[in-house]
Write a structure and sequence with these properties.
Number of domains: 2
Helix content: over 70%
Radius of gyration: 22 Å
Order of helices and strands: HHHHHHHHHH
Shape: globular
Strand content: under 5%
Distance between the termini: 61 Å
Structural class: mainly alpha
């Protein structure tokens, strides 16, 4: 029994190492300065994980970098098709159909590849670490917005906190696939609006809560 367990552990470690060696950076045909910028961006996220295995860290970095490359390819294809329609198509209706077709194709590609990030990372990371990668790719908005909501309304029930967190996680999933930082932040802003509307419907006076929160912050600064 012990030998069987030991064999399983060894096999798992060998599989992990093999996978780490197979994660190749998708940099062929890409501008070298762009590749270095993306590698640096991905490395900052990996550094926050404090991984001690260098092969594991490199594999995770390449997965994240490849994700950025893929997102850029998808959004760039849509942008080029849209620009072509604006520059070359005279009929307004036809032009709009081409633009909408490009957007549908983009959204289909994003959905097709969306779950690959988490599944690829799962070979090397646990759920908590995967969440950390997602936070790193979305500027940490989930944690900041969640904390801010609780700070603004200390009386939130556990149920209300859970619902706020659920929506923030949903916003993060959309934000991960956004084309740029503006697009990522806009998803959280959109869901913040949804959250605020929901809290208002539950009887919270958000202006009153926000004013009281600002007052608490000012009082805390005076005590420092």
């Amino acid at each position: 029994m012990k030998k069987s367990f030991l064999f399983t552990v060894i096999l798992s470690l060998l599989t992990l190492t093999a996978h780490a060696q197979l994660v190749v950076l998708d940099d062929e045909g890409r501008d070298s300065s762009y590749v270095e910028a993306i590698k640096s961006r991905a490395q900052k996220i990996v550094d926050g994980l404090h991984l001690t295995d260098q092969q594991q860290a490199r594999a995770v970095r390449n997965i994240i970098a490849n994700r950025y490359f893929l997102l850029n390819d998808i959004h760039e294809a849509c942008a080029k098709r849209t620009q072509y329609a604006k520059d070359s198509i005279q009929g307004k209706g036809h032009r709009q159909r081409i633009i909408e077709s490009a957007q549908r194709r983009r959204d289909a590609e994003l959905y097709k590849h969306h779950f690959e990030l988490a599944s690829n990372l799962a070979v090397y990371l646990n759920d908590e670490q995967i969440d950390a990668v997602k936070d790193g790719m979305t500027f940490g908005r989930l944690k900041r917005d969640y904390q801010a909501t609780q700070d603004m309304i200390p009386s939130l029930s556990d149920y209300e906190k859970q619902q706020v967190l659920i929506w923030l996680k949903e916003a993060r999933e959309f934000a991960i696939d956004a084309a740029d930082s503006k697009g990522k932040h806009s998803w959280f802003d959109k869901y913040r609006g949804r959250t605020n509307n929901w809290l208002s419907s539950r009887g919270y006076d958000l202006k009153k809560e926000r004013d009281a929160w600002m007052k608490r912050i000012e009082e805390a600064k005076k005590k420092q």
